[in-house]
UniProtKB/TrEMBL annotation:
InterPro entries xref list: Thioredoxin-like_sf, Thioredoxin_domain
Protein name listed in UniProt: Thioredoxin
Pfam families (alphabetical): Thioredoxin (PF00085)
PROSITE patterns in the record: THIOREDOXIN_2
Taxonomic source organism: Halocatena pleomorpha
Domain Thioredoxin: 3-119
Transmembrane segments: none
């Protein structure tokens, strides 16, 4: 089920995030799995910008999976990936986790993950 909160923020300024977009674009061999809930305040504030960044980077839909969890944070893959807080975004390459954004990082999700991918 697609998360409505992943719909790209129409006022997100791609020009202000050129470096982040370039990194996301360059890493075209990774997949993104997003756990969240449309009812979640943190998801509603953070995921639209992340969706806009993925869109600006040209990340194809088949590389992005949305997983909706309920208010008790139950849902597919929650135990397997040890999801405690939402939003959580796991980036994988060839089935191996290479980066993870969890709810309360001090920078936006796209910026955080781009930094992780670029290191």
């Amino acid at each position: 089920m697609a998360l409505e909160t992943m719909a790209p923020n129409p006022v997100w300024d791609a020009d202000a995030h050129e470096e982040t977009i370039a990194v996301l674009r360059d890493h075209d061999d990774v997949t993104y799995t997003i756990w969240g809930g449309d009812w979640c305040t943190d998801c509603r504030s953070q995921l639209p910008d992340f969706g806009a960044a993925l869109d600006a980077a040209g990340v194809e839909d088949d590389r992005v999976e949305h997983i909706a969890v309920d208010r008790d944070k139950h849902g597919p893959g929650v135990e397997t990936y040890d999801i405690e807080y939402i939003p959580t975004i796991v980036v994988e390459r060839d089935g191996e986790e290479v980066a993870r954004f969890v709810e309360s990082e001090d920078v936006p999700a796209a910026t955080y993950l781009a930094e992780q991918l670029d290191s």
